[in-house]
Design brief:
Length: 154
């Protein structure tokens, strides 16, 4: 059994290939494309236009925190944890290392209290922290430690 003849055939006319519909007997016209959407238009790329004069340079804000006075970290204390507060202390690189170690230890203790001992231990620690004598002792210890960290000598 032979295949039926194809509806279309391709012929060369004037050095161009033309598709001819054998049922209609004339060349196939290209299907009109879908209308172009506004977002699909090509945009022209233009270089920025030079201005008449250069814009004034922006003022850089004064450095704060770690970059305020070189390599030292500037830290402002508060009265609730520092007997000499509020004051701004300068903490050098060695002091920054001590602060990182203390923060890591406090994080481990907090995780231990929550995971192993549970929330009742946090309840007891809350009462201890609200006791005025305990708070005074912790504040005095924090003041001594912050004064030792102070780059200027306290």
């Amino acid at each position: 059994m032979d295949m039926p003849p194809s509806r279309y055939r391709v012929v060369e006319q004037g050095r161009r290939l033309v598709v001819i519909d054998t049922l209609a007997g004339e060349p196939v016209r290209p299907v009109p494309s879908a209308p172009e959407m506004p977002g699909e238009r090509r945009r022209r790329m233009e270089a920025p236009r030079p201005r008449d004069r250069a814009a004034p340079p922006l003022r850089r804000p004064e450095p704060g925190g770690r970059h305020a006075g070189g390599e030292a970290l500037g830290f402002t204390t508060a009265r609730w944890f520092d007997d000499k507060g509020p004051r701004t202390i300068r903490i050098g690189p060695e002091g920054q290392g001590q602060i990182a170690v203390v923060a890591a230890i406090l994080l481990v203790v907090a995780i231990f209290c929550i995971a192993i001992i549970g929330w009742p231990a946090l309840f007891v620690l809350g009462f201890l922290a609200l006791n005025p004598k305990t708070r005074g002792g912790l504040r005095a210890a924090a003041t001594g430690w912050l004064s030792a960290l102070d780059r200027g000598g306290g």
